[in-house]
Write a structure and sequence with these properties.
The chain is mainly alpha-helical and 207 residues long. It folds into 2 domains: 107 residues, no CATH class; 50 residues, no CATH class. The protein is built from 11 helices and no strands. Helix 6 packs across helix 8. The radius of gyration is 29 Å and the shape is elongated.
């Protein structure tokens, strides 16, 4: 097995190792419980936010692992109640008569890890949302450009946007065939004019 420390250090330096992901939430929880690692156990509450099959997980665990799962479920239920997160843990606890004594310090430890994980998760989701908006913006921009300009004109404008030098032929073509369109689009009166036309939307054909 490749040491986690080595993997993390390589990722910082730009090298990424691709590993297959788990096919289900249950499979990931089972794998964590089998590691017998207290630090990893603290990751389970964040996984319990999503729906999971308690019975399926339990059938894959030995007695010690099942007890640990039950302990974490009790802790997670406490955390979710405090955070106002809707869940079905109370039902699982009642149906399976899960009872264990949990000390306050242990709950606080899990709460702190959960808060950090939740913050990272939200930050990552927001980052993905921003990336999606950026991709959509680029796609919309490309569509708008292709409606007005030919591929050759778009290529020349792209070079200017990227601060790439133009050939003499490209430069002459820009001033003759591209710049007039740009000036027209930037003209405030023209933009108001086409805005009024588009907003009215009362097109009628003559009989």
């Amino acid at each position: 097995m490749i040491p986690a420390r080595l993997i993390k250090d390589l990722e910082k330096k730009g090298f990424s190792l691709e590993f297959p992901s788990y096919s289900s939430n249950e499979e990931e929880i089972i794998e964590i419980l089998r590691q017998k690692n207290e630090r990893l156990y603290a990751a389970i509450p964040i996984l319990l936010i999503d729906k999971f099959d308690y019975d399926r997980i339990k059938t894959k665990l030995n007695k010690s692992q099942a007890m640990q799962l039950n302990r974490i479920i009790l802790i997670a239920e406490n955390i979710f109640a405090h955070e106002g997160i809707s869940n079905n843990l109370k039902g699982i606890i009642k149906e399976n008569n899960i009872r264990q004594k949990i000390i306050k310090g242990e709950i606080e430890y899990y709460k702190s890890i959960f808060a950090e994980a939740k913050e990272r998760r939200i930050s990552k989701e927001e980052g993905l949302h921003e990336k999606e908006l950026e991709i959509r913006s680029v796609a919309n921009e490309s569509k708008a450009m292709s409606t007005i300009f030919s591929p050759g004109k778009i290529r020349i404008m792209g070079k200017i946007y990227s601060h790439e030098p133009l050939t003499n032929t490209e430069l002459k073509y820009y001033y003759r065939s591209i710049r007039p369109y740009i000036h027209a689009m930037l003209n405030e009166s023209f933009r108001k004019y086409v805005g009024i036309i588009e907003s009215s939307k009362k097109y009628k054909a003559t009989e």
